Amino acid sequence: MVIIIMAGFFCGCQPKVREKITRFNSLKKLKPNTYPVFTDSLGFKDSSVLTDSLDFQDLVDSIDYSLVYFKRIPLERKFQYGKDAYTAAHMIESLETIKAFLLKNPSANELDEFIRSLFVVYEAAGNEDGDVLFTGYFEPTYEGSLEKKDDYPFCLYSRPKDLLEIDLSAFSDKYKGHKRLVARVNDSTKKVVPYYSRAQINSLKGFDVESEPIVWLKSRVDRFFLEIQGSGRIDLGQGDMVRVHYACSNGNAYKSIGRYLIEKNEILKENMSMQAIRTWLEQHPKRMDEVLHENKSFVFFQREEGGPYGSLGVDVTALRSIATDSSLFPKGALCFARAQLPDKTNFNLVKDGPVKNRPVKDWKKASFFVLNQDTGGAIKGPARADIFCGNGSYAEFTAGHMNVYGKLFFLVLKPGNS
Q1: Where are the beta strands (DSSP E) in 270-317?
Q2: Which of 2, 208, 299, 321 is 20 to 30 A from residue 229's alpha carbon, by CA?
Q3: Rounded to the nearest 5°, which phi and psi values hold at 250?
Q4: pLDDT higher for 16 or 324?
């Protein structure tokens, strides 16, 4: 599972959303005459030239991953689309229908007509203006070692042996629907108490007895950002690479250090980005405890092959997978997004490398199909979506700077149109 909290960096500019949005009103069914134009900007082999030459292999791959999820759960399980509900069996039929059509290499017009004729379209409630804030996350690569060394002093911890997850609904029906508590037993009082906070974990001596080290990193900042992204690659040198993925968290509330730095007037809101936070932390090592400990949440990892994985336990696909609030929106669903993205075609064609400071207002308007395959600690409410951007320089740049408003739609096959 990947838990994405990158979006919290931008909390200083999150929109106000309507109150009492639930899974029964988070999506509004649209009338066919109000459907958007279903043009997929990412499907064009050359995004600088809009032609009928489309390539949907990455989208087909992402659809296949959602199909893996739906085929391993009970077929009668229901997924809420506003006031309507569809079974897992119908979700499978929906995805298999669109996949079969995409494999025919349709033109842009043919794809638009196909969606309009066979699919029901719902729009995410969004904020009070109906807009959704899109941010991004990516899979970073950091240098590391399997053994602690002088230049690799920071441990990436596995799930602690003393960490407990308590399901209160097992004790009383009044707790049904509540999140599980993450706790530990206090050795002296024998009472169950909240698990250690970030500050406590960092100050505990011998914590690696309870939590076995996975790898050791050069930088404490690297470790923090690895927690933010939820997964990553660790370069051990000489061509050796291991992948680490989210295992669990300490259950403490997440707090945005980006917001904290804005409130302290350390970084201007308009300059806030993942890169800006990293630069500030590296330039102020004596204040690292002060800032990082503002976020009491702490993430534990596990080594796994493949991935990165979303909360559905399936691979996420660059620019084809999104994270939303899983309590509001149907998991694994086919979606259509309208937002802005940096121009990938020209990203690496600048003389001195990527344009690091290109403002978001200059990003290209884009519309593209995605699958709802992840969730995250800061991805809450009907006005939030986080796009998985992949790995590499483009992914890092996009995830670090993406903070744009757009529209999000959920699509499902009309009943009886198989």
Answers
A1: 299-303
A2: 208
A3: -80, -5
A4: 324
Tens of pLDDT, residues 381-410: 999 999 999 998 889 889 988 999 999 999
Instruction: For the chain, report the end-to-end CA distance as a whole number of angstroms.
Output: 32
Sequence length of the chain is 418
Of the candidates 117, 114, 109, which has an alpha carbon nearest to the alpha carbon of residue 52?
Answer: 109
Cα separation of 69 and 332, whole Å? 7
* The pair of three-digit structure tokens given for residue 274, joined into one six-digit string: 């993942």
Instruction: Characterize the bridge pairing of strands 364-374 and 334-341.
Output: antiparallel
Name the pairing type of β-strands 84-87 and 164-166. Answer: unpaired
Closest CA to 142 of 60, 77, 235: 235
- In this prediction, residues 101-116 reach a mean pLDDT of 95
286 and 203 in a common domain:
yes
Establish whether the linkage from the previous residue to 15 is cis, with ω within 30° of 0.
Answer: no
Same domain (yes/no): 280, 346: no
Q: Are residues 266 and 346 in the same domain?
A: no
Q: Are residues 330 and 275 in the same domain?
A: no
Residue by residue, DSSP assigns 194-228 as EPPPHHHHHH-TTHHHHS-EEEEES-HHHHHHHHH
